[in-house]
Specification:
The structure holds two protein chains of two kinds. Chain A is 32% helix and 26% strand. Chain A is of the alpha/beta class. In chain A, helix 6 links the parallel strand 7 and strand 8. By secondary structure, chain B is of the alpha+beta class. Chain B has nine helices and four strands. In chain B, strands 2-3-1-4 form a four-stranded antiparallel sheet. The longest helix of chain B is centred in the middle third of the chain and has 43 residues. Chain B is elongated. The chains are: A alpha/beta, B alpha+beta. At the A-B interface, helix 2 and helix 3 of A face helix 1 and helix 7 of B. Chain A: Its main location: membrane. Chain A: InterPro entries: AAA+_ATPase, ABC_transporter-like_ATP-bd, ABC_transporter-like_CS, ABC_transpr_LolD-like, Cell_div_FtsE, P-loop_NTPase. Chain A: GO terms for molecular function: ATP binding. Chain A: It is found in: Cell membrane.
Chain lengths: 228, 294
């Protein structure tokens, strides 16, 4: 599904954020990416959807080396990858429905199909009844649900989440995690960067720990591992 | 691209025109000033070219006859010239006629020369095609009793060099203005891009194609160019109409003519509109390339 080989990333300011990543993620896996701030977690994740390009090495996603992907092919890669952020990245001028529909509109989906798919995912995230509301009328957890709905509305094979619970209180975080579990149980691969020890230690999945641009630990059903 | 998508792009581009109010106004003003000058200058330039052509078409040459040539030699020369291909007309004028012409133009002082007329008999020759003047002149120059041939090439060259200089000065001026207009348009588009940063980021994340992201901005540039060309088109049309109405009757009997109002004005207007669109597209392309990283 996703395979990194000898991946190096050096930023223009000289920082080595990836110092030889070698990793393989199977379809349907749930993977936590942990590590201190600035260790290279975000770079690791961003390279998977070509937000960042590696300086060296190959990143194979669904059989295509995306490190060598031409810029005009990148949009097609992204259509198979859903992305969720800590700060939700919703458009405040649009309703909940329109925010989710946006992901399908820009890939020129039929209006009928858009309506059906959007209502389906809003139902899944439990916000069907709030489809006409604006994002700032919702709580943080609800806004994150909208952004998750948007990330899965075009049925991607992978959802990549960069600290999706970072801005949420503990209780809401659990709700969001349950949602990711639900999505994962339907066969979607989930890769999540997180600082949330409690979650990682409770809902056990594969853990990849990154420090100074190096994968220092990679274990199935691992724990968070860092002392608080 | 689907019609529905195109409609969406149109809507987006109009929305940001309204949202960027003052920048829109500034860019449109810059385009307006630029195109107004381009229009006026082009109209002037084309008419000057036309005048130059008219003058060139009116070229005659003076063939001066050797002093010692007798009546017989003059007749032979006349026949030789007539037999050349491309000669439209030939007219003979004796040196006495020439002198009385000078006395008419410059006054009685010229009468002093009646004692000892320094002028030569001449033929006034006109070519069917004025571009052939030079060739005919050199052929006639080789004939036995030809003293010299003059066809005012100096004057025409001078006119052309004046035209050349004014054209270059105008081109530099217009390039400067075009650059300013493009810079302002590109800035307006930049502001639009910044205002819609999150939207663009999300578009790219969910896999919108690069053209999908770009098109609204390019359309916005085109609207700025088109709106900016409205006033210049109206102004140039009005000015040229009045100039034409004024000049046309006064030039009726002259060999120089002003360009006909129609179709000239439509051509100029099409040019102004085209320039507006080109400036708009170019300006937005510069911003989109720099700030969108698509």
């Amino acid at each position: 599904m996703i395979q990194m080989k000898e991946v190096y990333k050096k930023y223009p300011n000289g920082i080595m954020a990836a110092n030889g990543f070698d990793v393989k993620i199977q379809a349907g896996e749930f993977v936590y990416v942990v590590g201190p701030s600035g260790a290279g977690k975000s770079t690791f994740i961003k390279m998977m959807y070509r937000e960042e390009k590696p300086t060296k090495g190959t990143i194979n996603v669904n059989g295509i080396d995306i490190a060598k992907l031409k810029a005009n092919r990148v949009p097609y890669l992204r259509r198979n990858i859903g992305v969720v952020f800590q700060d939700f990245k919703l458009l405040n001028k649009l309703t909940v429905f329109e925010n989710v529909a946006f992901a399908l509109e820009v890939i020129e989906e039929e209006p009928k199909v858009i309506k059906q798919k959007v209502m389906e995912v809003l139902d899944l995230v439990g916000l069907k009844h709030k489809a006409r509301m604006m994002p700032d009328e919702l709580s943080g957890g609800e806004q994150q649900r909208v952004s998750i709905a948007r990330s899965i509305v075009n049925s991607p094979k992978v959802v990549i989440a960069d600290e999706p619970t970072g801005n949420l209180d503990p209780e809401t975080s659990w709700e969001i995690m349950n949602l990711f579990e639900e999505i994962n149980s339907r066969g979607t691969t989930i890769i999540m960067a997180t600082h949330n020890r409690e979650i990682v230690n409770t809902i056990r999945h594969r853990v990849i720990a990154i420090e100074n641009g190096v994968i220092v630990r990679d274990e199935q059903r691992g724990d968070y591992g860092y002392e608080s | 691209m689907k019609a529905r998508t195109m409609l969406r792009h149109f809507r987006e581009s109009f929305k940001s025109l309204a949202r960027n109010g003052w920048m829109t106004f500034a860019s449109v003003s810059a385009v307006t000033v630029t195109l107004l000058l381009v229009g006026v200058f082009t109209a002037l330039m084309l008419n000057m070219n036309k005048a130059a052509d008219d003058i060139e078409n009116d070229v005659e040459m003076n063939v001066y006859v050797e002093l010692e040539a007798d009546q017989q030699a003059v007749t032979t020369l006349e026949q030789e010239i007539e037999q050349l291909s491309g000669v439209e007309s030939i007219e003979y004028s004796t040196k006495e006629e020439e002198l009385s012409g000078l006395i008419d133009s410059f006054g009685e002082e010229m009468a002093l020369f009646e004692q000892n007329n320094p002028l030569r008999d001449k033929f006034v020759v006109k070519a069917v095609d004025p571009r052939q003047t030079e060739r005919l002149a050199s052929q006639i120059g080789t004939f036995e009793n030809t003293h010299s041939v003059e066809y005012g090439e100096g004057k025409i060259d001078k006119l052309f060099s004046i035209l050349e200089v004014s054209r270059n000065v105008g081109a530099v001026l217009i390039f400067g203005l075009l650059f300013t207009a493009m810079f302002l348009i590109s800035n307006t588009i930049k502001i639009t891009i910044v205002a819609r940063r999150t939207e663009i980021e999300i578009m790219k994340l969910v896999g919108a194609s690069n053209w999908f992201v770009r098109i609204p901005f390019i359309l916005e540039g085109i609207w700025l160019g088109i709106i900016g060309s409205i006033l210049p088109i109206a102004a140039v049309s009005m000015i040229y109409y009045n100039v034409y109405e004024y000049m046309q009757p006064r030039l009726e009997n002259s060999f120089i003519q002003i360009l006909e109002f129609s179709p000239f004005i439509y051509q100029i207007n099409a040019l102004i509109l085209l320039m507006g669109v080109v400036i708009g597209v170019w300006g937005s392309f510069m911003s989109v390339r720099k700030f969108l990283r698509v």
